[in-house]
Amino acid sequence: MKKNIFKVLLLALLVTTTLYHSNMIANSSSPSFGISSSKPTPIKHKYIKAKKSINMYRRTNFKSSNIIKRFNKKDLPMFQVISQIKDKDNILKYYVVQINPKTKKPISKKYGFITSNKKFITVLNK
Known about the structure:
Structural class: alpha+beta
Shape: globular
Mean pLDDT: 76
Radius of gyration: 19 Å
Number of helices: 1
Low-confidence stretches: 18-32
Number of strands: 8
Strand content: 35-45%
């Protein structure tokens, strides 16, 4: 009796998970990056260097609870821009990955948002 209940629950979990993932794949044409007023614009081969200490965020709303990583002033990172998006206040943000400046390859698989404010970043190529 207990084995049959366990099998039914396991099957229900498998079906629910499969349906959830198939919905995620079907709706993946427009990725959701939090609250935004525009769709992401893909960019190829654009690199950014930080001037000051900078934070990387999970979503376009820059709150302390959304911080993925903090970069200090002494080891300023370089990023590759994946896309750019405007948030609900029409402020431009960059969706980036941290890269090695010499090889131009990603250092980590952490992707996130940084500001486009010229006080904090320098665009290396346009």
